[in-house]
Known about the structure:
Blueprint: E1 8-13, H1 27-44, H2 49-56, E2 59-69, E3 78-88, E4 92-101, E5 104-116, H3 128-138, E6 144-149, H4 151-169, H5 174-177, E7 186-192, E8 197-207, E9 210-218, H6 227-241, E10 246-252, H7 256-260, E11 265-266, E12 271-273, E13 276-284
Parallel strand pairs: 9-10
Antiparallel strand pairs: 1-3, 2-5, 3-4, 4-5, 6-7, 7-8, 8-9, 10-13, 11-13, 12-13
Amino acid sequence: MQRNAFRCFHRLRVRWAEVDMQKIVFNAHYLMYIDTAMMDYWRALALPYEASMEVLGGEMYVKKATVEYHASAILDDTLDVALRCARMGNSSVLFQAGIFRGDQCLIESELVYVFADPATQTSRPVPAALRKLLTDYEAGSPVVTVQVGPWNTLGPDAAQVRQSVFVRELGIDPSVEADAQDSAAVHAVLRNALGMPVATGRLLPSLAGVARIGRMAVERPLRGAGWGRMVLDALLEAARARGDRQVVLDAQANAQDFYRRAGFVVRGEPFVEAGINHVSMGRDL
């Protein structure tokens, strides 16, 4: 099994609790590693698992799991867990997994999932939308779309994501989260293959060539997969297209590295807004 046969990877480091006296990983932990990596697979599809399964009208259940051991992982190893959808039947989906230390394949595994009614756990055909999504992802085709436009077009979808992140997750007062600037802003909304809005942001009108980005939000289960960067890039391109020279934003303190990777630098001292630590950042276009 070769690493280059996979598109989705999850990286982990072996901990004390996962090894025996010889510092070798307990066999049962490998399936746990694969199960954890499966969440990264759904994240790469831009599918918040629970909400997406409700839309699809079913649930994915493991029917069979096999593991073939080639070599042992040891304490402090850095491992990459790789997953791919290898085949789909009428109601079943076969995933293949490999656990690698560098280029060395330590573990091969196959997992058969069955799409089923969550109430009765009786099998159902894999929905056409899910079948197409899995096929497209494995072929390297895009699995999301980003739309940029005004509030009267994108407002409902943008508000849905912002309510989920800012109001329900962070506890921000709804009257503070929504403001009069939405109607004048350019908005970006990222939707997954099921048409569900999962990320958003806005670009305020520029002042003397300086634009401001705000209300950046990604649904919690999907963070770390690059969807926020796609929204940010769409807003930066919108600012560039209208002739803005600079872009500024107020980043949550724990998101500074995300914006630094996009070329932003800190400008000013930290401050607190809506009970959350922030720092002002900016970049030239």
